[in-house]
Amino acid sequence: MDERLPGSVLFCCTMNSVRSPMAEGILKALYPKQVFVDSVGVRQEAVDPLAVEVMDEIGIDISKHRSKTFDDLEDSSFDLIVSLSPEAQHTAVDMTRTMACDVEFWNTFDPTIIEGSREQRLAAYREVRDFLSRRIRDRFARRPAIAPG
Question: Are 66 and 81 in contact (CB under 8 A)?
Fold first, then answer.
């Protein structure tokens, strides 16, 4: 088994409406049975329709995602917590002070701050989706076993 593949991962961001649902969807698509994946926000807001749209472009449906906060977690024991915003990083660090859990900070741009045409806004969401996809693939890549000798 790849040592880089944790059994459970929690992605967290500020609102659990764009970045963390995207990351959750990508990791679930890559490892549907091997890793338990969840996501939360410091605060909650309904999943962003533009996030749903750009994820649908790559064949991942996050339309049924229900936003939740750290307080809504039924189980807070994760092998790895990946925070995607500074605010979520602070909350994750506070939450894990007394747990054996790794916390990684992947500072990820918030595409909701982009103004402009629909296409300009979609482009920003695609950039975030593609950034997260690359980070997740790099971080959780399966490496071939090295033969002894």
Answer: no
Give the structural domain span for 126: 8-139
Euclidean distance between CA atoms 44 and 33, whole angstroms: 27
Give the three-class secondary structure for 45. coil
**Number of domains the chain is built from:** 1
pTM, rounded to two decimals: 0.91
Backbone angles phi, psi at 35, to 5 degrees: -135, 135
Q: What's the token pair of residue 32?
A: 């549907």
pLDDT digits (tens, 9 = 90+) for 50-77: 999 999 999 999 999 999 999 998 877 8
Where does 48-124 show beta strands of DSSP type E? 80-83, 102-105
d(C-alpha 99, C-alpha 110), whole Å: 29
Cα separation, 21 vs 48, whole angstroms: 9
